[in-house]
Design goal:
Distance between the termini: 38 Å
Strand order of the largest sheet: 1-2-3-4-5
Structural class: alpha/beta
Bound molecules: iron/sulfur cluster
Strand content: 5-15%
Number of strands: 10
Largest sheet: 5 strands, parallel
Number of helices: 11
Helix content: 25-40%
Oligomer: single chain
Length: 331
């Protein structure tokens, strides 16, 4: 589960838009896309839509992940005006009682309505963007199984309304020192984050990956030095070296579940490879909606399928029904 509730109040801050613009101005020189969220709800930021616009004008693809609770009528129009490339919704349960037990304070019916309103208004306005994904999380320790019929019905409702994809994802195990030792076998070089991504927290702290929830792996701080200098600096170089030669000395990485996920070509993480190819070959459009992405029923990515208590995939329907079979008439 997300550790947000355990974050110190001082760390629950919003990125200043001036800082955001300065980061984008530098990152646009080499970055490909920007994920506009990290350990918080992005729709809480009063200038969030300006940020999307700014990043888009800089030539970066934009995507974000939200719980969808705040996406009211007004925000829906503003989101469509801003035009991010992809929005994914975390719907933690496909049944009202389970959803509201997990996401305390949220209203299941409102969240579903918000998502359906977005795709409906996107169609009304004949817009292509954003590509809309609904994620259902498979919780590792859930004692209450969801009703397969209810899950299948809601999935179908989303797809018929115009959601591009409904996927399932394994619950994240955040990289924290108190995480349990992983039972699954660790794979060689199965994390590419230190070599291809950068997470910048609201205060400018740079960490190598989104699984470092508390930003313990500090690579530098924007403002004190440039992103390029941080990327090539001693902290990143040391992390990459220790990752390859002495992973036991990295308390977060050594227990991280990324290292237990499936790989291809000996050491390339399967999920990254598929995501990379999907993002770069299919983009975020009709072809992607038609083919679907990796996290669909039956595609095993984590290598932990045998774990007791874990069930995989949506309960019914054929594989191809995970995505809409007929793309809408959006432009
Ligand atoms: S192994 Fe885990 S904690 Fe370490 S860099 Fe990769 S994702 Fe982050």
């Amino acid at each position: 589960m997300c550790h947000n509730r355990e974050l110190d109040a001082g760390l629950k801050n919003l990125m200043d838009i001036a800082l955001f613009r300065a980061i984008i101005d530098e990152a646009r020189q080499w970055a490909n896309d920007v994920y506009l969220h990290h350990r918080g709800e992005p729709l809480l930021h009063p200038q969030f839509f300006d940020m999307i616009r700014y990043a888009r004008r800089a030539g970066l693809r934009t995507r974000f992940h939200t719980n969808g609770c705040l996406l009211d009528t007004e925000k829906t129009e503003r989101l469509l005006d801003a035009g991010p490339d992809l929005v994914s919704f975390s719907v933690d349960g496909f049944e009202k009682s389970i959803y509201e037990a997990i996401r305390v304070g949220a209203c299941f019916d409102e969240t579903v309505e918000n998502i359906i309103r977005l795709v409906s208004r996107r169609r009304d306005r004949r817009l292509r963007k954003p590509y809309v994904v609904v994620e259902r999380i498979r919780f590792r320790h859930s004692n209450v199984p969801e009703d397969p019929a209810a899950v299948a019905a809601l999935r179908q409702r989303f797809l018929e309304a115009g959601v591009d994809e409904v996927i399932e994802k394994e619950e994240y195990v955040w990289a924290v020192e108190t995480a349990p030792e992983t039972a699954a076998p660790r794979r060689l070089s199965a994390c590419t984050f230190p070599w291809y991504a950068m997470v910048i927290c609201a205060d400018g702290t740079v960490t190598p990956c989104p699984q470092d929830f508390y930003a313990k792996l500090v690579m530098g701080r924007w403002g004190e030095t440039s992103l390029r200098e941080i990327w090539n600096g001693p902290a990143y170089r040391d992390l990459r070296r220790r990752y390859q030669t002495d992973i036991e000395s990295l308390p977060l990485c050594r227990k991280c579940d990324r290292l237990c996920r499936k790989t291809v070509a000996r050491s390339v993480p399967l999920q990254y490879a598929i995501t990379f190819l999907t993002d770069h070959l299919l983009g975020y459009g009709r072809l992607r909606a038609w083919i679907g992405t990796a996290e669909r029923k039956g595609v095993e990515l984590t290598g932990e399928a045998e774990r007791p208590g874990l069930t995989r995939g949506f309960p019914t329907a054929s594989r191809t029904s995970e995505t809409r079979r007929k793309p809408s008439s959006r432009q």
